[in-house]
Design brief:
Helices cover about 30% and strands about 20% of the residues. It is an alpha/beta fold. The protein has one domain: TIM Barrel (Alpha-Beta Barrel). The strands form 2 sheets. The chain has an 8-stranded parallel barrel with strand order 1-2-5-6-7-8-9-10, surrounded by 4 helices. The chain is globular, with a radius of gyration of 17 Å. GO terms for molecular function: catalytic activity. This is HpcH/HpaI aldolase/citrate lyase domain-containing protein.
């Protein structure tokens, strides 16, 4: 996605029944709500046409079903490859797994696990995508290993929670990303370009995300994570 293009809103939720009209994709964080992700996934799938018709995440874009109602891509965030629950995958049927990854080999390993899962459940090969999420200093330094790690790779994003590991403030006094986070952001953006996949901006930890949303658009980010429905609306230009 080039500069000036629309930025999609990926709303992070801990589960429950979502409103499918307020975001372009839903991210269920399995770390904080492993028991509710199934309920959240089924609630999403109860709206309009079956989300499976999105055919493997549909280029990170929101689509509409035959009925005209929204169908919303569903992403499940996991902390590492050992955290994947195949029984839950079979229930929820996500469009992509968001992996907090430190190296391309983790992406490759997850891709192999998903291939086995799809074969066991009669699902289309390659239908479940992978989003690599940069959440640590090691992950920032390993972003060059993401390209070519798996044909399932759909996007590369980053998380401003990285600031906690670094002992740094996430924002400057003016509300911009701090220099160290700006560097991590640039690394994720470059890695996405090198891999030929979408770049996903971090959720903004401050009060007014409009400046960062504009920067994400100018820098060619395809999507941005949102902490709540209000941020998602701002990202989509609805407020």
């Amino acid at each position: 996605m080039g500069p000036g293009s629309d930025v999609r809103a990926y709303l992070i939720t801990s589960g429950g029944e979502p409103d499918p009209t307020c975001a372009d994709a839903w991210v269920v964080d399995a770390r904080s709500a492993p028991s509710s992700s199934r309920a959240g996934g089924e609630a999403i799938r109860g709206q309009g046409a079956d989300i499976a018709a999105l055919n493997g995440f549909a280029s990170l874009a929101m689509t509409r079903g035959i009925s005209g109602k929204r169908t919303v891509p569903l992403l499940i965030r996991i902390e590492g490859i050992d955290a994947i629950d195949r029984d839950e995958l079979a229930e929820v049927r996500p469009d992509a797994i968001m992996l907090s990854s430190a190296h391309g080999r983790d992406i490759a390993h997850l891709g192999a696990q998903l291939a086995v899962h799809e074969a066991e459940h009669g699902l289309p090969d390659g239908g479940i995508g992978i989003i690599a999420l940069v959440v640590s200093a090691a992950g920032v330094l390993a972003t060059a290993s993401f390209a070519g790690a798996s044909p399932r790779l759909r996007g590369i994003g980053w998380d401003a929670a990285l600031a906690s590991e670094l002992g740094a403030e996430p924002l400057t006094d003016e509300g911009d990303w701090s220099p160290v986070l700006a560097q991590a952001r640039a690394m994720a953006r470059l890695a996405a370009s090198a891999a030929g996949v979408a770049a996903i901006e971090a959720a903004y930890p401050g009060k007014d995300p409009r400046k960062v949303i504009g920067a994400a658009r100018r820098d060619g980010f395809a999507a941005m994570f949102a902490r709540d429905a209000r941020q998602a609306q701002a990202i989509r230009g609805e407020s």
